[in-house]
Design brief:
The structure is a homodimer. The first copy, chain A, is α+β, with helices and mostly antiparallel strands. Chain A has nine helices and nine strands. Chains A and B meet through helix 1, helix 3 and helix 4 of A and helix 1, helix 3 and helix 4 of B. Chain A binds a DNA duplex (30 and 30 nucleotides) through helix 3.
DNA sequence: GGGCCATATTTCGTATCGTGAAATCGATTG
DNA sequence: CAATCGATTTCACGATACGAAATATGGCCC
């Protein structure tokens, strides 16, 4: 491989080009912090030598990927452009947006559009209600399948073997005391969700947050996305289930 | 040698780290094309050796910056996340969004929020009307100051010397037959706009598109942003000027 | 104001890492 | 089945990015 066996090869997984891995780690580190970050912090968080981090950041700045504020770093405006050009599922998002907004207006809570990527769901888009307390998922952020409503449905739609494989692979980490962390329990639960045609998330990802999720299929019956409502658990209403199903159905029709 | 011996650093300007420049060029090239692009095309557009482009893309994929579709490339979902985390002017966008939507609903045309960056305006956000024909600017995209309503105001707010320097630096490239490409003319025009407190863009950036722009100041009188309406030229109405000014004023107040 | 500490930035010799020519693989077409 | 074109892999080379250490910068306390 690229590195010698003894050498670091740090961080999550690995990539083939060192500088790109490091650049990504830096961007990630900047993104993680809400406010502009100092070189000190960045080099500490990425375990890069300060001068190395500095050089990479300087190059990133020249390329507009990073911006400076005083002697702190923030994400650059070019990332806005690139982010808005991400074409994956662009058609899906375009079709879904108005439907999501309508649903959001009907129920007054956050509506999310997600897709599966590997063992996680990725939040593609969302419609936020105008109220002070609401659940807000960042676009592009991820969550494991087994702690989200949509994710559990996606697990359930596969074979039982797939679900068990997922459980083995990930070890079913728990996030709250309600997370399903037992393989048997998960397999049972998940098939129940599929039969019902929707899934709850009962504070499994974050305490206090409850969701209802359904799947969106294309005309060939393939799963193309998930649609969910996220709300403070005590505000969640079962009446939403039918509205959500109807919205997903309409989206399916539009796509098919 | 990386490039030909005589040509040390290629492309637009230069950056300090070769791979990062190249990665950025590749991302840019992918973004430029609406559909997924082949390696062939990418290596041609970036003038990189195919195997080099391939290696960099492979690394970018491992880092989620790029995704594959068959043997074509598109921007990766991680860019969505990074793009949504760009904190620059986040407060500004948050404050502006509802005001922009209100204005959009009043007039039924696209409302844009822009900031100056160097010799260009960057589109930070926009509110789009629900109609078939509309003007749509991509978030994060850029345009030269002298062909946009807001840009002309920004030029006009500076000293005449700054404006002339801008003209010299850029050579005032024309985009349509209405673009102002003469320094004298521009200097005159621009100061007129500032006096009026708003500016038109009369098909100067794109034929058929007309805009009205105003500036947003903070409590110290500094320019923080520009607000503009973009519409097919024949639909544009002078009544919008006062609405736009009022919206900008309200935003100023909220920020100050 | 001056001295001191903590960061940021620059320098520079060196080993590493990325490079690109060329070979291989794989699919498509005549 | 040969021929062609593009994607992918290999590999030896040397340009490139690395990081320790030196130097600048700036904030803070006395």
């Amino acid at each position: 491989m690229a590195q010698s066996p003894s050498k670091s090869q740090s961080e999550s997984g690995s990539g083939s080009i060192q500088v790109i891995d490091r650049l990504t780690a830096l961007l990630e580190a900047i993104a993680r912090n809400r406010d502009p970050v100092s070189l000190k912090v960045l080099s500490a968080e990425t375990e890069l030598h300060p001068s190395t981090a500095f050089r990479i950041l300087a190059s990133a700045i020249e390329n507009g990927l990073v911006a400076r504020e005083g002697s702190n770093y923030r994400l650059g405006i070019r990332l806005l452009q690139l982010g808005s050009r991400v074409a994956s599922h662009q058609d899906l998002r375009r079709e879904a947006r108005p439907l999501m907004e309508t649903l959001r207006d009907q129920i007054g809570e956050t509506v999310n559009l997600t897709v599966r990527q590997g063992d996680e769901v990725v939040y593609l888009d969302r419609a936020l209600p105008e109220r002070m307390m609401r659940v807000e998922q960042r676009i592009g952020s991820r969550a494991p399948l087994h702690v989200t409503a949509v994710g559990k449905l996606m697990l359930g739609e596969g074979s039982e073997a797939d679900c068990r494989a997922y459980a083995q692979r990930t070890g079913l980490p728990g996030y709250t005391r309600y997370s399903l962390t037992d393989e048997e329990q998960l397999v049972q639960h998940v098939s129940g969700c599929v039969r019902a045609g929707f899934a709850y998330d009962d504070e499994e990802a974050e305490t206090g947050v409850g969701c209802i999720g359904v799947l969106v299929h294309d005309d060939a019956g393939q799963i193309v996305a998930g649609l969910s409502i996220s709300a403070p658990i005590e505000r969640r209403r079962d009446e939403w289930i039918e509205l959500l199903k109807a919205t997903a159905q309409e989206l399916s029709t539009q796509l098919g």
